[in-house]
Amino acid sequence: MVLKDILYKVAIESVHGTTEMAVHKIEFDSRKVGENDVFVAIRGTISDGHDFIEKAINQGAIAIVCDILPEIIVTGITYIKVKDTNSALAFMASNYYENPSRNLKLIGITGTNGKTTIASLLCQLFKKAGYKVGLLSTVKILVDDVEYKATHTTPDSLTINKYLKEMSEAGVEYCFMEVSSHGIHQKRTEGLHFEGGVFTNLSHDHLDYHPTFAEYRDVKKSFFDNLPKTAFALSNIDDKNGPVMQQNTNARKLTYALKTYSDYKAQILENQLSGLLLRINDNEV
């Protein structure tokens, strides 16, 4: 694929060299770089990809995406300076895999608790209704009937788009994806086209990663802020942060609750090991 096409929508600050070149693949792990690859230097919590630019070039990288240019510029290598390499990787991955999220209906589920349960239940529900489904969760990744092992709540951008591409080729119609605060903060969901977002709840977890609860809340909120007008934003308004999530979204706002007046008001009629009997807006399910 031509590098110029892979860089579509990336916030580029400067280019040293040509972008009219064919690249083999994108890598952000210097150990996996091969001939004619493009290496994206990501600043991680443990290591900084900018420290491995020279290694990537020695292994065959012909293009480097970075937020600070290295002191030594190697002749024949293209350097693309960007504002944010995490964001750049997300858009590049989406372009490289031909924007697979636009070929299916992608639903993101975020919140502190309940993400895996909701994503898994929706996946099963839509499968029983006769749809081809996909799942990106902490427990597993499903591409129709093919199952893969999951390693992160929200995988890296390349992995997300790789599986979405596989889902698209398999004819998957709906994909349900857990969206973690880590994933949002590290821009892994940028470049994806969401059909809708669901908010579960918010509690004082993950403050080992986020310095304050306010930042944790605002990172979650940014997912809804970035939803398109064509999407829906479904929020649990029994949680005091439910309305906050919808404050600045352009998406169609919908609410659900057990206690509060909402678009989808649920009542638990029976709670047994075999499952729940609910009344949702006067319909028993």
Which SSEs are present, and which pair or pack?
Blueprint: H1 3-6, E1 12-16, E2 26-27, E3 38-40, H2 53-58, E4 63-66, E5 78-82, H3 85-96, E6 105-110, H4 115-128, E7 133-136, E8 140-143, E9 146-149, H5 157-169, E10 174-178, H6 181-185, E11 196-199, H7 213-225, E12 232-236, H8 242-245, E13 252-257, E14 264-272, E15 275-280, E16 283-284
Parallel strand pairs: 2-3, 3-4, 4-5, 6-10, 6-11, 7-10, 11-12, 12-13, 13-14
Antiparallel strand pairs: 1-5, 7-8, 8-9, 14-15, 15-16
Helix pairs in contact: 3-5
What letter string, H or E per element, gives the SSE order? HEEEHEEHEHEEEHEHEHEHEEEE
Runs with pLDDT <50, length 5+? none
Describe the sheet with the most strands: 11 strands, mixed
What's the tally of helices?
8
Gap between N and C termini, in Å? Answer: 49 Å
What global shape is seen? elongated
Mean pLDDT: 96
Strand content: 25-35%
Radius of gyration: 21 Å
Report the structural category.
Answer: alpha/beta
Strand arrangement in the largest pleated sheet: 9-8-7-10-6-11-12-13-14-15-16
Tell me the CATH architecture of the largest domain: 3-Layer(aba) Sandwich
CATH superfamily of the largest domain: Mur-like, catalytic domain
Whole-number total of structural domains: 2
Number of DSSP E strands = 16
**Percent of residues in helical segments?**
10-25%
